Each structure stands twice: as C-alpha cells, then as structure tokens.
Amino acid sequence: MTAISGREDDIFRPALHYTAKNTWLNDPNGLIYHDGIYHLYYQNNPFGNVWGNMSWGHATSVDLISWDEQPVAILCDAEEDIYSGSIVFDQYNTSGLGNGQTAPLVAIYTSAYKDSSARRGTQAQSLAWSSDGGCTWTKYQGNPVLDRNSADFRDPKVFRYNGPPGSYWVMVAVEAEEHKVVIYSSDNLRDWHYLSSFGPANATGGVWECPDLFPLPLDGDEEQTKWILTVNLNPGGPNGGSGGQYFVGHFDGVAFTSETTVTDGSSRTADLDAYHWLDWGRDYYAAVSFNNAPDGRRLMVGWMNNWQYGAAIPTWPWRSSMSLVREISLVTNQGQPRPVEIIEVTFIPESAEEFGLIIRGNGTNGTRIGIRPSEDRLIMDRTSSGNIEFHDAFASAYTAPLKPTSDGSYTLTLFIDHCSVEAFAHDGQVTMTGLIFPGSDSNLLSLYAIGGTATAPCLEVKRLAEPPVRIAEPLVMSR
Ligand code: FRU
Fold it and tell me: Which structural domains are found in the chain, ordered by start?
C-alpha cells in the first residue's frame, strides 16, 4: 500500500462536510436557525489542530450543505475554557441582556475553569449574548449562572418549553461521571431551578456528555407526540469509543420518563444491541439538534470523529469535520419508534452469506459495506480502507443489527466523501458513520457477494462533488 499522510496535498479535506480551514474542531455547539441563516458553532482550538484552548468557532449556511467559516465567536481566556453548550433566541428579552434595541441571541455554555481561576477544577454554566445576529458575543458579567460545585457538570442544551405547566426555558445538562442528565428551568436564563434528573440507564460504559431533549410526532401524528432524550457517551459506544444513545418517552415539563429503558446501567456485560443508538458507526459523536429550525424540522449534526484516535487522524492543517446534517423523525418499527433519514439502493438476498459494496477501492483495497442476512447484521469493514496505521484503534470491522424490509430486501444509501462514508439502511432506521483515508486514486465502486449470489436490481450513483466514482464489474468471492 502507498503511504498516504494527507499532509502534502490535503487530499482528505471533505467536499460536503464542514471542517475548519486550519484548525481543530470537535462538538457542534449553539446550533440555531435565525433570520434565514443556519449557525453552526463548535468546539474549536483557534491556535492549533489538536484539542486545547477550547473556544467556540463559528460557521454559517443558508442551505445546510455549504458553510462559511466566520471569526471565532467566544474565545477562551486565562480563567476559563469555553466548553459545549447551546444558543436560544431570547425574543422577548427575558434575560434583560442585549443592547436594549434588538432581541438578543443568548449562548449558554460550560465554563471549564482553569488553574488561575478561584473556581479551578470545576465546571459551571455561563451566558454570553449577541445583538448582531450571532457574529460578536459579550460574556454576561454575572457568570456563572448555574454552579453545582461539580467537576463534571457540562454541556447545557436550552430550549423553550410550552406545555400544561407553563412556558419557560428548560436546560438539560450532564453530571458526566454519574451518568445523569440534570434538568433545570428558568424564566430569565439567569436564575435556574432544579427540576429532576434522569439516569443512570442503558449504556453507561463511559461518561455521559452533550444531552438533548425534544418532541417528535410519532409517524407524523401530532396527537401522538413523544419526547426523545439523546445522550452521548465516551467511551462505551456500540462499536468502541464514542457513541450516542437515545431514549423515547415523555416529558411533562418537569421530568423525563423513558419507555425504552432496558437496564439501570449497572451491568458490566451490557448487551449494547438492546439499546437505541443515533448511529452505529465509530465516528458520530456529540450529536445535538438545531433550535428553531424552520417547518418544525428536527435537524441534527454530530462530530464525525472518535475520542479514541481523533487527535491522530492524518489530516493537515485542519483536523475533524462535522457529519452531514440529518433530519430526525420518529416512526414505528417493529413496535419500536426510531429516528429515520433518507434512502436509495436495494439488494435482494439469494444464496450469498454476505453481499454489499466496496467503496473507495483501487482493485486491491477498499471499504466493505455489506449485509449478512443469516446474522441480521450490517457490516462496515475499514481494515484495508487506505491509511490505517496512524492509530491502533482505527482499523476495524464493525456491525449493527439489521433485518430485511417486509419484502425481504435491503436498502442502503451511502454518502461518500474524501475521508468518510455515512451509511443509511432502510430509510435511515440504522445508520453507520465511518472515517476512511483512501488514496486519491481509490475511486472504484464494486458490488460483491461472498459464498453465493445476491441481486442488486437498483443501484443509483449521484455525483454531488469530486471525487468521481467508477463502477466496476461485480465481484463474486468465495470463502
Ligand atoms: C464532548 C466534550 C464535552 C465538552 C467538550 C470539550 O466531546 O468532552 O463534554 O464540553 O467536549 O471540548
């Protein structure tokens, strides 16, 4: 295999995914649609391409596909790093912040206090406000606004709740080490009152981070609205390292009650297949949704990386990108409501024990994305996907549960970019996101079957951007 570093010619910079031009990024923060613009803030090191100096970077888009990098929005200082959080539009100026003329955007972020601070070693929630549509930000003088004297209290997601008990701001945040989501309310974004907590439950193999809570109509029926609580955890994801689980249930304005809790989180031999995952791949983390997205859409973005090897991925001068923006909805599937996305390609199984596609191949290497019908599994194998040497934990083949549709077929949609693939099976009921680092000449797409045959009656390739995809003859492999 040719050595590929990405350093010389930046061959891995995505065409469709957001990445900062020259610097490091991780979690999406402060996602909001405001005045016709989608704002994507994010954990950013403005001074380097590894984690550190955590500040909020900023990008804007009108179509959720092409993004423009903006100046750093909230910069770390001697006393605090600016960890993850969210932004609300304070339409009626409940906070009293702003310039007195324009209703402010208010950011609620985690202050991670440094050694020079009197609060060193703790994390608390703070505010900053913007009166110019999210370009420039001023920290609130009274920060922090919510302090539990905890070292691991972070990642506030704030939204406006309107329900039978009233209309107020709700914050979900984590006590990360305790595997708990804590829920608070406020009338003015400055004074917060404890409401309840949720957890531990289901997956607890790592710290809980970056929660979100939002309603979704079941099968499009507003009368049957459920609430979804998402919690990212690291490590302990479904295929190693970082991952995101979700719970479906009810929020009454005070407490979240889950209908999908299977265990109390104390099990050391947990069956991860029994839980619900936002994505089964290894590179979809810290996912959160936009506030105020138009037409009631629930749009979610994840950090397309994994803390296991994230700092070592072979890209330069930038490092890490965001996932594509995904629309989340809730459908009944075998009795279970699940988020869905969009879809295209079909396979009909025959005698093959495994079949699927090899993407970004060069005739020798490639990434295998397939189905093992007798095991009811979707598989993604990146053990010979290109540059795998940069970290021991990277090369891997991993799977997710996947049953055929009611007519016995399987459908897959793949979004392939210069260093990633996002796979959506069966209308997005199962998704799998993986980074890959193939050579720039690895653009071959092949169908394959192992140990027998399978049919692909429909295969549509849409070229949205470089690199070109060349379709090869189907491969029939034997064991
Ligand atoms: C998740 C996370 C958050 C924290 C941020 C720091 O990836 O660890 O919990 O706020 O990253 O960059």
Answer: 18-323 (2.115.10.20), 343-478 (2.60.120.560)
- Mutate which of 24, 27, 56 for ligand 1? The one with the most ligand atoms within 8 Å of its CB, which is 27
pLDDT above 90 covers what percent of the chain?
Answer: 85
User: In this predicted structure, what is the pLDDT of residue 469?
Assistant: 56
What is the distance between the alpha carbons of residues 259 and 430, in angstroms, rounded to a whole number? 20
Residues taking part in catalysis: 27
Ligand 1 centroid to residue 279 C-alpha, Å: 18
CB distance 329 to 338 below 8 Å: no
Give me the pLDDT at residue 10, please: 85
Predicted local distance difference test score (pLDDT) of residue 463:
79
Is the pLDDT at 375 greater than 60, yes or no? yes
Write out residues with Cβ below 6 Å of ligand 1. 26-27, 43, 54, 83-84, 110, 154-155, 209-210, 286
Q: Could you tell me the distance, in angstroms and rounded to a whole number, from the CA of residue 307 to the centre of ligand 1? A: 10
The answer to pTM > 0.85 is yes
Are the CB atoms for 57 and 72 separated by under 8 Å? yes
- Residue 373 phi/psi, 5° resolution? -60, -35
Q: Which residue's CA lies nearest to atom 6 of ligand 1? A: 83
Q: Is 476 exposed, middle or buried (0-12, 13-18, 19+ CB in 10 A)?
A: middle
**φ and ψ at residue 295, rounded to 5 degrees:** 60, 25
* pLDDT at residue number 441: 87
Assign 3-state DSSP to the chain and report helix, strand, coil percentages, each to 5: 5, 50, 50
Each residue of 216-253: pLDDT tens digit?
999 999 999 999 999 999 999 999 999 999 999 999 99
Burial class (CB in 10 A: 0-12, 13-18, 19+), 25: buried
Q: What is the pLDDT of residue 343?
A: 80
- How far apart are alpha carbons 456 and 415 in whole angstroms? 18
How far apart, in whole angstroms, are the C-alpha atoms of residue 23 and residue 286? 19
393 token code pair? 């934990």
* Inter-residue contact 354 to 449 (CB < 8 Å): yes
Q: In testing the pocket of ligand 1, which one of 152, 210, 301 has its CB within 8 Å of the most ligand atoms? A: 210
Which of 23, 123, 153, 155 to probe ligand 1 with, by most ligand atoms within 8 A of CB? 155
Which one, of 190, 186, 151, lies nearest residue 172 by Cα? 186
Q: What b/e sequence results for 83-109 when a residue is b if at least 16 CB atoms lie within 10 Å of its CB, and e otherwise?
A: bbbbbbbbeeebbebbeeeebbbbbbb
The answer on pLDDT for 342 being more than 60 is no
* Residue 27 CA to ligand 1 centre (angstroms): 7
What's the pLDDT tens digit per position in 165-175? 999 999 999 99
- Which ligand 1 atom lies nearest to the CA of residue 210? 9
